[in-house]
């Protein structure tokens, strides 16, 4: 089994989303992917920014004690300036907030880093990415939604990959160390497309927790992403 001690980010990263797991057994769901997953993706929704309500800070604080896998927290909430630092303080490795919900992304990214977390910026399906390319030097992760934020189990939208290509070109042109994450409809049928477009971190919910063996599903996704990355 792999160790997460002195964590060094591998490439590519597979981040199973516990949104697709059984909420009555979240600790077990996380244990099921230990040794295979790189991050645990935690979707926080407030029923305001998106029309769905999921996990909150108390659940994250409790679940953090159940595993050593780094937490990748995705805040689909209004007023992230108020709530995001709490997730960093709770031990999240990466805290991603939405560009559409934040007036000053650079300031919030600095706050998150000061609290000990990596800072991520998310771009929803209908939001152009171009206005945010200048912010890449100030964040650690840029997350492109390949569905409309708010619900798991949606169909992958390949037309969103042009955003991924645009971001990857800017990262390369500026020689930046920024993770390019995709979220939505990632499966064995779609992960290679996303990797070839330039993504290097992949959120997968149903593809992992809908499988008979979640850890094996993670390993298969990682192998596909690695194969596609080699081809690029």
From TrEMBL:
Instruction: Write down the SUPFAM superfamilies for this protein, in alphabetical order.
Output: Ribulose-phoshate binding barrel (SSF51366)
This protein's GO cellular component annotations are: cytoplasm
A biological-process GO annotation: pentose catabolic process
Which reactions appear under catalytic activity for this entry?
Answer: D-ribulose 5-phosphate = D-xylulose 5-phosphate
- Cofactor: record remark: Binds 1 divalent metal cation per subunit.
Q: In which pathway does it act?
A: Carbohydrate degradation
- Explain the purpose of this protein: Catalyzes the reversible epimerization of D-ribulose 5-phosphate to D-xylulose 5-phosphate.
What is the name attached to this protein's record?
Ribulose-phosphate 3-epimerase
